[in-house]
User: Fold this.
Amino acid sequence: MKTNVFHIALLLLLSVTALAQMQPFALQEVRLTGGPFKNAQDVDLRYILALNPDKLLAPYLIDAGLPVKALRYGNWESSGLDGHIGGHYLSALAMMYASTGNAEMKKRLDYMVGQLARCQAKNGTGYVGGIPQGKVFWERIHKGDIDGSSFGLNNTWVPLYNIHKLFAGLRDAYEYAGNQQAKQVLIGLGDWFVELIKPLSDEQIQQVLRTEHGGINETFADLYVLTNDKKYLETAQRISHRALLEPLLAKQDKLTGLHANTQIPKVIGFEKIATLTGRTDWSEAAIYFWQNVSQTRSVAFGGNSVREHFNPTTDFGQLLRSNQGPETCNSFNMLRLSKALFLDKNDLSYVDFYERSLYNHILPSQHPQKGGFVYFTPIRPNHYRVYSQPETSMWCCVGSGLENHTKYGELIYSHSANDLYVNLFIPSTVNWTAKNSKLTQRTEFPYQNQSELVIETTKPQEFSVNIRYPKWAENFAILVNGKAQPVDAKPASYVAVRRKWKSGDKIIVRFTTSTRLEYLPDGSNWAAFVKGPVVLAAKTSTNDLTGLFADDSRMGHETKGKLYPLTNAYALVGNPATYLNQLKPIDRLRFRLDSLTLQPFYEVHDARYQMYFQTFSKAAFDEQKTRLKQQEAEAIALEANTVDKVNCGEQQPEVDHQYKGEKSDSGYDDEQFWRRTRSSIAYQLQNKNRVGKYIDIRALDDIRLDNVDFLINEKSAELISSEGKTIRLRADSQDVISLKITARNEKSTPRFNQIRLVTQ
Assistant:
């Protein structure tokens, strides 16, 4: 398959404007030829092959009442999010096939789609899905029976998010691999969904959309592109979440406290709908969101969020303290948004961010030898990351991780009707089939600041090769067949080289890069070393890497090793003029910093590390060290006393503790999350080794015992103490403790903030 059928459909639909816009090359037209990205692609391919398609298909077969060929996977695939990895797997197979031509990818993809078609035919309604008790759940929604929160809809774990992965997987199977059966299954599924929500009012649909739903509005816009049937575009607009869209339209920042990866896919949908409808206000809203997140909420490596939620732009302190740093899924989707905006707006600032995130978050999120994907990337000094394993780990970041390393060729090059654009310096080839031309890029960047571009063409022809002049590059120079060319462009633009090209013509691109300190966006004194687009970090220890490769436990994606005090982290003491002078070059992209060795963060694995460094004058350093030492001692003592804890109102902690609730809502006030109820909420706490003795509950309001009841393992809890906004209960000496909080007379409970199971 030499053309991308989905892109052809889009270009035909937008034929009036497409010629003026940047266009992507199909993955089939680009091949990686070496370097760390090619290695990452190869490692991902092995991980994809290690997964069993029949296990991934089992939830769909179970729902359709068909016999399974293998038991479904455990972990998230059998605890409520059943089937979501299967959707990602379709996308990964399709894109890996397009990027490599690997026949086994195509064979597995065709098999998966065929089995899904069987399930759809058996269901007889167009529906196919792996959601537990899916038919019962969807019937309740169809009838308008809706009780939703940020991640639970009718006490079902993010069902629209789940089914969005299947929508996207079927789309990708057709788009990238030309599977016609996938298109038919996708249309059937889309028609079923249109009928499902037809009886619902706009208010009810917005109520449904309170729960995380991925980019389902984008996939219905894609269905419109594939079919030119306006009902899909109308549906895409109808299922766009107004609670996020309206503040963005007004250029209002209402993001702090929101679950980050819930929002980003919605905005990708806003941008797609804008390109199809001409709604420039929706596109401006997407741009505002992108600028807000990329410029004020992202750290040096491109990631964002703490414990999966957007932190305040004025305080990154929680991010520095937490073992749950930016989530890989966030950057997966921010790259998709950056690519969409770049192709729409021809603005290289989107490529700058894309490149930064690609090198420093996406590439390091996979173990380069053993494989395995990272969920959280902490910036807490002297902490580490956890890697998935094929048989144990079925997290969301495994799903997006499968896709991340299949599509590195998507934006290395782009083209207009007549000209070629080189956006990234990655060893690769691109076949420009429309021009019967091929370009080969040979480079060792970022270890060498040079790239060689060699052109092959069937006959001499004139066009421009536009080479990105990155904003981080200095002394930018271009030679054609050994002759220097004028460079009158500025950083963050293209240098156009136009001539009649013939086979064998060679372009040499040369530049220099400098090392600089980039401070956190909140204006604090924490900074990271960056050389060119590459973030540098230091391995600090290989001690206590508990759970480095995840088991199948519900929270296996989180680190279990102890937190080292922030006061133990290396600090830069002196003044701004001397900080960089402390770096001593060792080798290509390696520097000595006293006892530490800085190297590209994407090379740092199987170790604790330090990426961010505090900067101090000598007097400020001594003062800060004393203050932090006391704070750290208190925080570490509390964690040592804690057996398990729930941060109420935060998505993943509540999912991890099997949250159930009725007539409940959650929010974020004064930089703290909370949950309350007019009926009941419940959590399960893990009492490892049965050492937990007490349950401490904290609220943002006074806890009045005449308004609320507490049950532990279905028995009235024994009250130990109660003081204002805190309460202590005696814990049950069981391995699992079920805590249920009920409101009396449907009066709202206080806003509960945190629940801790403690030893003393």
